[in-house]
Amino acid sequence: MTSQQQDTGADYRGPLAPPPASGLPLAVVAIIAFVPFGIVALLRSLTVHRRWERGEYDLSVRAAADARQWSIRAIALGVSIAVFAVGAALVLSTP
User: Fold this and answer.
1) Are 60 and 20 in contact (CB under 8 A)?
2) 22 — phi, psi (to 5°)?
3) Is 0.70 topped by the overall pTM?
4) Most buried by CB count within 10 Å: which residue of 68, 72, 82, 95?
5) Could you report the per-residue pLDDT of 48-61, keeping only the tens digit for each?
6) How many CB atoms lie within 10 A of CB 4?
7) Are 6 and 42 spatial neighbours (Cβ–Cβ below 8 Å)?
8) Other CB atoms within 10 A of residue 54 CB
């Protein structure tokens, strides 16, 4: 085998694993549900692909997990506030 036929992979400069799911659609829903936490989720989800491109796979996985967690928190808090507001409106509207 010549040196041209050997494939050691040492000169490969791209990322070895596929990018993790960024959770961007969930972050957009989170912005609708509760804006402050939704913005944090959006910012975290936007860093996932950037870190993956730089070869920081572990940090991109962590950013994706953070984005999901912030999105879930925002949606849960937004739904809780909506349920509380509707309940309070119903209670206060009865004579």
Assistant:
1) yes
2) -80, -25
3) yes
4) 68
5) 999 999 989 999 99
6) 6
7) no
8) 11
